[in-house]
């Protein structure tokens, strides 16, 4: 598929996709979801990609769902537009590789919801975050009501959702909405350093971290711990990644991952 909105690049096992519709501050429309679904499907078939970084073009990461596309929808069409975004973000979240949002500017509404479907978030000091839907007489439609409270806790989530307040990078860092903040000029360079550091680690272990943490959150504690024990064991033994990593440590050499 030819992309009009997504600009994909890849280098040394790291894929970077830039959302580029700067005239509408990268607002998410149906075309974006079609392209993103195609991009995610291609990534699933590409074993050479170890980490995905998502960013935005211009002064916004993404300023939300496309209000011009939504304004004339009826009830059924509104729900369908919500389910469309929810499904894309869910398949993004379910990718086996780590996904990092590098938030260069406004991450509002559907834009913030997109970052929350990523595994963690880096941000520019200039980034702004918010769920402004109630100002439009709406609620979030891409699972923001679900992910925000799980990520930052009920109090901060309900505050952001009910007030529509926009917060800056320092507050986002304080409530755990982002994990690292950098000056705008070095946001991508620093995010790529993090991505490279992940690429250097045991690739199976990195994928298992994602699987065990994410699946474990949907289980009770004991079932999650049992999943951990099973997958911990899967890394041991001749020919497995843990054997190589531990042997390399003891032999004072760099591990050679398969
Ligand atoms: N949808 C469609 N177009 C948008 C947009 C959006 N979410 N956000 C910005 N744009 C467009 C503007 O209409 C404007 O277009 P024109 O030049 O053709 O007038 C262009 O992008 C530039 O925007 P501004 O002139 O408003 O830029 P600004 O710097 O003055 O303000 C802003 C920036 C504060 C982010 C402001 O654009 C804004 O408030 N945008 C809307 C944010 C919002 O409400 N997002 C939530 C959408 S609803 C949602 O996301 C629901 C869901 O969960 C599914």
The helix content is 40-55%
Low-confidence stretches: none
* Element-by-element helix/strand order: EEHEEHHEEHEEHHEHEHHHH
Q: Total number of helical segments?
A: 11
Q: Bound compounds, please?
A: acetoacetyl-coenzyme A
Strand order within the widest beta sheet:
1-2-3-5-7-10
Note the gap between the termini.
32 Å
CATH topology of the largest domain: 2-enoyl-CoA Hydratase, Chain A, domain 1
What average pLDDT do the residues reach?
Answer: 97
Q: What tags apply to this protein structure?
A:
single chain; 258 residues; alpha/beta; 2-enoyl-CoA Hydratase, Chain A, domain 1; 2 domains; six-stranded mixed beta sheet; binds acetoacetyl-coenzyme A
Write a concise synopsis of the structure shown:
The protein has eleven helices and ten strands.
Describe this structure in words.
47% of the residues lie in helices and 16% in strands. It is an alpha/beta fold and 258 residues long. It has 2 domains: 6-199, 2-enoyl-CoA Hydratase, Chain A, domain 1, CATH 3.90.226.10; 203-250, no CATH class. The strands form 2 sheets. Strands 1-2-3-5-7-10 form a 6-stranded mixed beta sheet, with helices on both faces. Strands 4-6-8-9 form a 4-stranded mixed beta sheet. Helix 5 (144-152) packs across helix 6 (154-163). The longest helix has 19 residues, at 75-93. The radius of gyration is 19 Å and the shape is globular. The relative contact order is 0.11. Bound molecules: acetoacetyl-coenzyme A (CAA). Acetoacetyl-coenzyme A is lined by residues 24-25, 27, 63-68, 85, 106, 108-110, 113, 132-133, 136, 138, 140-142, 144.
């Amino acid at each position: 598929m030819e992309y009009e909105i997504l600009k994909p690049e890849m280098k040394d096992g790291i894929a970077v996709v830039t959302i580029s519709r700067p005239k509408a501050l990268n607002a998410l429309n149906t075309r974006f979801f079609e392209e993103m679904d195609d991009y995610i499907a291609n990534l699933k078939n590409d074993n050479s990609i170890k980490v995905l970084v998502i960013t935005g073009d211009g002064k916004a990461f993404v300023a939300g769902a496309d209000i011009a596309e939504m304004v004339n929808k009826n009830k059924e069409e509104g729900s369908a537009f919500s389910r469309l975004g929810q499904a894309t973000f869910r398949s993004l979240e379910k990718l086996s590789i780590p996904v990092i949002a590098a938030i260069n500017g406004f991450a509002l509404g559907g834009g913030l919801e997109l970052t929350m479907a990523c595994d963690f978030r880096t941000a520019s000091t200039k980034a702004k975050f918010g769920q402004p839907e109630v100002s439009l007489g709406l609620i979030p439609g891409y699972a923001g009501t679900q992910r925000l409270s799980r990520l930052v806790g009920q109090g901060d989530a309900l505050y952001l959702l009910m007030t529509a307040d926009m917060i800056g990078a320092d507050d986002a860092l304080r409530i755990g909405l982002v994990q690292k903040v950098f000056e705008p000029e070095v946001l991508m360079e620093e995010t790529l350093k993090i991505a490279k550091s992940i690429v250097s680690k045991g690739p199976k272990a990195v994928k298992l971290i994602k699987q065990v943490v994410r699946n474990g959150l949907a289980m009770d504690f004991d079932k999650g711990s049992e999943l951990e024990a099973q997958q911990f064991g899967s890394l041991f033994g001749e020919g497995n990644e843990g054997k190589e990593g531990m042997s390399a440590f003891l032999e004072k050499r760099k591990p050679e991952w398969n």
